[in-house]
């Protein structure tokens, strides 16, 4: 088995909160429990949403909690040339195509077909601009706005994958996802492409992240296959919910993580550990608690899944 390399990849849209500490801690514990490396990547590809200085705040909060990366911090905003090479590769192989559709047009086509958007779900792209023959485009003379990757159709679209916590998973890429965007209409790189390229370039073997991102896995594995990149192991952790039962997030007003004192840090780590299913640990300091938490990591025996 290849040496474990894990990662934590926050978006610098604000400081860490209790929910994001759970994700950071889970990825750190998993890497340490396997005797591996832990990296940090700043996912600032969506620059308009990023807050100036939030990256340094996040790195300082991680350091306060004793979570130190084992290598240089990677910034997505500096990797546009690398993402372009990946898109060029997909286009040359006939896997990606330009799309002229607006959100309103996609919604109108859904309405015409009698399709209903699921709550918290996405509008599945109806394939309007998908080329019907090699070397052609489906723009019908309209200017391209975005770039999409075509997903398999029919039986091949029923994607199966294994999660170390959730077990066997499946998703129909054609009816649940559709051809998805890899470069947006505003010129920004889409999360799906950037994360796959970055994970491959950093040699990530184990992706540990929140359960809300599990449904991204099939399309990312499809991209890995198209780009000839290795497929990491996956572990999706429980979400931290607010009083309304929604995912704790900056969008919903989650307060910033308080790392201003050793006592606050220790309590934050204990709370994050409890959310991950760790038993109560007596460590009197954050360093002691982290050492005990590595030994108590509950998915240690599932690392080969």
Automatic annotation (TrEMBL):
Q: Under which main EC class is this enzyme filed?
A: ligase
- Cofactor binding description: Binds 1 zinc ion per subunit.
* Co-factor(s): Zn(2+)
Annotated Glutamyl/glutaminyl-tRNA synthetase class Ib catalytic domain residues:
7-254
State one molecular function term (GO): ATP binding
Residues recorded as binding L-glutamate, renumbered to this chain, are 7-11, 43, 191, 209
Where in this protein would one find the motif 'HIGH' region, according to its record? Answer: 10-20
The Gene Ontology biological process terms listed for this entry are: glutamyl-tRNA aminoacylation; tRNA modification
SUPFAM superfamilies annotated for this entry? Nucleotidylyl transferase (SSF52374)
Highest rank taxon of the organism: Bacteria
Short motif 'KMSKS' region, span: 247-251
Query: What's any one GO cellular component for it?
Result: cytosol
Q: Does the keyword DNA damage apply?
A: no
- According to its UniProt record, the EC number is 6.1.1.-
| Annotated residues for binding of Zn(2+) | 99, 101, 125, 129
Tell me the PANTHER family matching this sequence.
GLUTAMATE--TRNA LIGASE, GLUTAMYL-Q TRNA(ASP) SYNTHETASE
Q: Briefly, what is this protein's role? A: Catalyzes the tRNA-independent activation of glutamate in presence of ATP and the subsequent transfer of glutamate onto a tRNA(Asp). Glutamate is transferred on the 2-amino-5-(4,5-dihydroxy-2-cyclopenten-1-yl) moiety of the queuosine in the wobble position of the QUC anticodon.
**Protein name, entry field:** Glutamyl-Q tRNA(Asp) synthetase
Q: Which organism is it from?
A: Aquabacterium soli
Highest classification ranks of the organism: Bacteria, Pseudomonadati, Pseudomonadota, Betaproteobacteria, Burkholderiales
Q: Point out the gene that encodes the protein.
A: gluQ
